[in-house]
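Usage

Read records sequentially. Each one opens with the input sequence:
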Amino acid sequence: GNESRTRSAFILREKEARRWNVRWVLGEFGILFQTKNSEKYLEDHMKLIEEFSISSFYWNYNRERDDMSPVDEEGNEKCLSYCPLDVLSRAYPQKTYGELLRFSFDRSKKEFVMEFKSYGEEYPTEIYLPERHLGKNPKISVEGGPYEYYIKDQILYLFANEKGKYKIKVSR
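and closes with the structure output:
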């Protein structure tokens, strides 16, 4: 992967989206896991997806093709020189009731940070916190409002009922 070339493509898509006043999504992306530097390629893509606050679709969860799927035919995780699901599984906001200002997940530090402006909705903002990175009892710090964490679902529900800025930090 060439991170600067990929960044340039993301910047171009962002400019197009702003011109048309729409959000954009990274369609399908994927890699042959045996490819040299495939872990860096995946990590670079995931960081850019977070930086640009976009959604994406990982291609290809085809269990019959050993070279592209992070799981085998029985659904067991495949690990080569690294485990692709370690990179693809990340903390992220699933639903944000307000304006998402930024979010990031640092896999090496096992830390998630998110900031958003609430419109004062009564619905909770939902954040996925994968146990594989953050453990069963992550350290949760919320500036702004009450929250509930459901271990079984690995979901943090933040009730940002008041208008204003909220900051969430979660670590292992």
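Summary fields computed downstream for this record:
- The first strand starts at residue 25 and ends at 29.
- DSSP finds four helices and ten strands in the chain.
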